Amino acid sequence: MNAPLIIVGAGHAGGRAALTLREEGYGGRLILIGDEAHLPYERPPLSKGLLQGSTDLAQCSLCDSQQLAALGVEHIAANPVSRLEPQHHRLQMADGQWLSYAGLLLATGGRARRLPREQANVFYLRTHDDALVLRNELKPGARLVVVGGGFIGLEVAATARGLGCEVTLLEAGPRLAGRVVPPVISDALLALHREQGVDVRLNVALECIHADAVQLVDGQRLPCDLVVVGIGMQPNIELAAAAGLEVGQGIRVDAQLRTSAADIYAAGDVCEFRLAGLYQRQETWRNAEAQGRLAALNLLGRALAFETIPGFWSDQYAWGLHTVGVMTARMVRRALPDGGLLLFYLDDHHRLQGACGWALGNRAAKDIKLCERLITARIPLDPVSLADPDVSLKPLLRG
Question: Which of 107, 178, 341, 393 could anchor a disulfide with 14, C-beta 3.0 to 4.6 Å?
Fold first, then answer.
């Protein structure tokens, strides 16, 4: 009997890979192993719809149990892999069972980065179960301190304000989301959250957390009922590292998402790949979707290179942020109605390399999709036209 294809990690990337394998005609045995008890689901709703109570797990899931069964995908839940032996093409699960594989995908994702000391009133948001626990605490009038001004912290703050909580947000750096957005967007985020009643504090350091307050290094004491910590994600590389695979800040792969072991691939949040010559990871819906698909195709022998334009989005109250591509030193700004804006990033030949849109609702999404086409087209663009809100982007595709 032929050994199966096995996917370790039943999140977005792993789930998408399993579905793609069946869509592409793979008829052999297929096993999907997950740490969580749930079917594969998308994570963006955790800090929005799931936390608000307007979305449930079924609406976030990539498939239901009947679909997986019909596709013949063996889903092993809540039984993580504890040992990997690439030289013997086998792995061991927490219950002691060994499985051999013909090909393997590691989509092990990550876990919330935690504070050194655990506290009863401190919460994290990485999984569906985390969201359910936190949702029960976000009652009207609850005093919430959010530690971390990245997108998880900001989205939790926005959701909590919508649920009637009093929110203080602490950011150690000089601006919000400073690692991923330009200063003008950080300024817009800051203004919006303060308008919505969030007490945003920049350049602050946490001393300790008490049962009823957060203590800052400068001596300030912030009374609170609960604390949400959003200080990043820790990639789950331990299994790969113990097996002797090459790792850095993630599981390192080549252009085809193959690890240092020839029949093992990696995808999603844990995957560290080269972009513009530098290793990086991308913790986005877009990356999980694209890499899950491509890894599945390459498990089938397609030998396709991973070539993608990075991008992400975030919802903040009634506003939407959309990005695509990469930021460069040459930026052109276009004003949009109601205080929104589009930022265009050009290379030295005025070809578009990236774009960022900030606008009410989904207003910037269409422009960002056109920008992705402009990036692919590599057409030199007129900066004056880009800056003019009366000039439509679509005709620019004709050069």
Answer: 107
